[in-house]
Structure formats: C-alpha cells, structure tokens
C-alpha cells in the first residue's frame, strides 16, 4: 500500500461518536470538499456534550503546499447534545432522494443516540467564508444544525428524556424511515422516524444490548449483540422467537460464587460489543468481545462458531467497520493505538464456495447450523497505522471522486477516519 495521505482535526473535547457523510452536499455536488464532511460527538461525563459537523475549509488544503499552515478540517457548526453521544450517523444514501418533508433537498439528516434517539437537520446553504485566522469558523458561514425530533421509550418526547440510555442504532438503507435502537434495558426498538412512532419494541437479550444492525438489503431482519454474550437475529415478520447465531464460550477459570446461587444469579459471560455486516456479502458479520483483542468473523449460513478469527491487536479492540468497495476491507482499531485493515476476500470466497450447493434466502439463513465449518486464523493485516493515542472509534468514507493532492496522490477512493483523544485523523486507503 502506498504512503498514506493524512488529514487532521482537533476538537475542544474528547471524541467518541464519529461518522463520515454518505454523499456530497445537496447544494455542493460539484465541490470535492463536500465529500469531506464528518459528524462527531463528544464523550464527557456530564451533560455538556456537543455534536459538530466538521469539513474542509477549502479544496486548496488538499492540493496546494501554500495551505499547510491552515487546518485541514474546521468546525462548520455544532449543537448542544447533553447526554454523552453513544452513536452518530448520517442519513443513508437512499434517503437523499427520499421525501422527508416539504423542504428542499438543501438539508440532510443525522441521528444520534444517548438518553434518546435524536434526529437532526443539517443545512449548509451558503458558501463558508475563508477565515483570516487559523482554525476560526465564520459565524455567518451558512451552516446550521438543529434538533428535529427526540424519541424515547415508544414515543416522541421533549428534548430531555427519562428513558433508559441507548447504546447504538442502525439506519435501514432500503427503507430510510426505519431506525432500530439498542438499549441497556435489554430492549431493541424499531422506529418509524416519519411518524415519530415505535413500530415495535422487544426484549432482545437477557442483559444490556450493546449494538444492533439491519441485515443489508432487508427491511425485516436485524441482529443484535449484548452483555449476555449472544448474537441474535430477529425477523419483524415473526417476532415470537429469535435465532441465536453465536454464543460466546463461558469464561474459563471463573471462581465459584461467594454466596449460594439465587434465582437472580447470572452465569458469567463474555459480552459482545459490536456487530457489523460485510456490505458486499451480507452472509458475513464481524464482532468482538469486551476486553478482547481478536475479531470473530461469522457466517450466517454456519451459525454456532466463527469461520475466521483475526489476531493482530495487542490490547482491547474498540471499533470495527467494513469499507464500501466491491471487495471491502475490514478496519479494526483499539487501545494498542493500532488501526488495522484486513483483506478477507480470499477467505470469504473460499467459505462461500463451501456453501454454494445450498443457497439460502435471508430468512432461511436463520435456521440449521453447519458444525463442519472449521475456524481459520488470520494474523497478517493488509495495512497497519499507529495513532498517537488509543483509538476509540472509526468511520469509513464512501468512495470519493477525488482530485490530485500536492503530494502527487489522488483523493479518489476510500478514506477511513479514526478518533483518538481530541483528535480525528482521516487516512487515505
């Protein structure tokens, strides 16, 4: 892999939530900089948290050496969030042509979770003025971020919520009016954000639910992971039961309970923190354990145990995400300050050929296990980058139509952004 192009942003607070815009700005399709917009959220242990939209001050930052004294990214606008931001996502690409309201397409939606699911409207109508001071944002830039609605429990609420904290959410790409959230109160809630009403709320796990994801291409099936150590699949067409696709082995060498077991005693488990589908082959999912340093790759056609395990990190993993190419790379990041990119195309293709004799639909994939699949170990990532501090989160860009940079490289292709402390670094893949 070639030398990495790098862009950077410094925030006034520790960053956790992070997402790269999914498309160019509606009014700036011809401006390459509009593909370089990030949504970020703070993680402070108080109620003064904020979210912000950051973007390139000017394309010259990418292509002219004279602009090296200017910051790469600047704050375009920000807003008060209160509770720490557990997740932030821009609207899916499919939502750009979706008629959310009577407004023109000059606005875009973002969503965040914390004490509630919040929908935000971002508008970048005007051309931002070039500032005379490094890092300063012109207040008359024309960028604005406003709260559209807040959803908690099973209904619309005022800005403040008394509901159980939400840990994450997934925005349905096929039906962008649907968002599913996960909560520490063991539930998942499917929302219709057009009507601000809950479609359904279900008890998904025995303990806290940490992450949730729609099956790509489906408006009915989603999966979740949680503190009980299980990965479960749900189908909105038949909610009487769920399918357990994977359960973590019970931890070894656990001391016996100090008191006699009671009906409320819980067996020890190894919680699963995140779940992410391979967008080009939704049979494959990646997950990892709390405090774990390995990534498990699961095949929905072979539930029960991983088909691949990735070993490259030296301490706990914090984030995982797939790119959007035809053969997407998997990015992982953790407390060892490492961002690792994994090319699993050859491994997943080999596994797919084993399953080729019995194709299954999305719903039928949730059935019989195949214990004959052996787990393979992968220890060599395709690329590694060392950040200045622990990496708490990551986000992929969509494929960007680029321009040549002053280094002789092109901005075209995919970028991956990482959050480490108060810094965001965007690296060209």
TrEMBL record:
Q: What SMART domains does the database record attribute to this sequence?
A: WD40 (SM00320)
Q: Which Pfam families match?
A: WD40
The cross-references to InterPro entries, in alphabetical order and at most eight, read:
DCAF7-like, WD40/YVTN_repeat-like_dom_sf, WD40_repeat_CS, WD40_repeat_dom_sf, WD40_rpt
Segments forming a coiled coil: none
WD repeat ranges, renumbered to this chain: 202-244, 310-352
Would the keyword Repeat be found if you checked this record's keyword annotation? yes
What the entry lists under PROSITE patterns is as follows: WD_REPEATS_1, WD_REPEATS_2, WD_REPEATS_REGION
> Which residue ranges does the record annotate as region Disordered?
247-270
Whether Phosphoprotein counts among this entry's keywords is no
Keyword annotations for this protein, in alphabetical order, are: Repeat, WD repeat
This protein is called what? WD40 repeat-like protein
Q: Which organism encodes this protein?
A: Lentinula lateritia
